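Box 3.1. Reading complex inputs
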Amino acid sequence: MSRILVPLGFLLLMVLFWLMLDRIDEGKYNPRDIPTEFIGKPAPAINVPDLYDPTRMVQTADMKGQVWLFNVWGTWCPECWREHEYLLELSKTVPIIGLNWRDQADESRAMLARLGNPFKQIGFDPQSNVAMDWGVYGAPETFLVDAEGVIRAKHAGAMTPDVWEQKFRTYFEQGQGKP
Amino acid sequence: MIRSFEFRVLKIVFALLLLAVSVAGQAAIETYRFDETSQEESYKKLVAELRCLVCQNQNLADSNAELAHDMRRKTYEMIMAGKTDDEIVDFMVERYGDFVMYKPPVKSTTLLLWFGPLLFLLLAATVVFVFVRKQKQKQPLVSTQQQQQVHKLLDE
């Protein structure tokens, strides 16, 4: 009995391991992903200086009544460069507020001048104050905030057409940010 | 001769490297000033209990990641603002989830985490129990008759 059971159990473990690796490879499962506590909760208020004009404040209150994306990025983050082109495309139909995180203002402005600017407004957050408030632990991270100011979805990592399709698109089709 | 000389040089280089690494490691950790020792104790306790979310197997005290640096600063600021330990932990959990605690609360999603080891222990105990019982049921390799023969031969 145990002569069959032991190798069988081992085989089962191997299959499980292989399936898991496969899911990681396809990007369906990220073992480092941390479940967001914020889904379904009101988005923390933002009140930070604008990247282009430090005397102006970027505020979440301005976005009330709209479904919008909040994208945390920095010039130091390779994935942010990778997702930039897709953000530009998204920005044609979706309002995106950016948060320039832990960065140099002049370098960030230079990057946007070169690649284009997908953001309606950009908050400048070199001290991580806003990033910490939103529970950001890496860049890029993208949040979806509905018309009532509630966070409905979040993605840690680069924004891609697949991610958009799976996590975000439906919220915009309904208009009010409800799935 | 030459070998031992090379070995000595290697040892010196290695020692210097170690020194450089330890100095670099120390330089990265910031120091904070506290008004009272109780505040410092709170700080030390919290940075040991809270987990860095970038290098996920380190606590805030050990991690050199920028996020850990930010979280330590936030912890310090909250302590200086007179927040209690619980309030600070709640603040972190609200943002980063139970994951941020090295000692998560017992609830439905963490049941397996807490009692999984016990489950494995029971499983292992069952396997051992079954195995031992099977062994006992097996015929002994030497029959009593053979054993008597052996004793007889040895006595002679």
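In summary: The longest strand of chain A covers residues 68-73.
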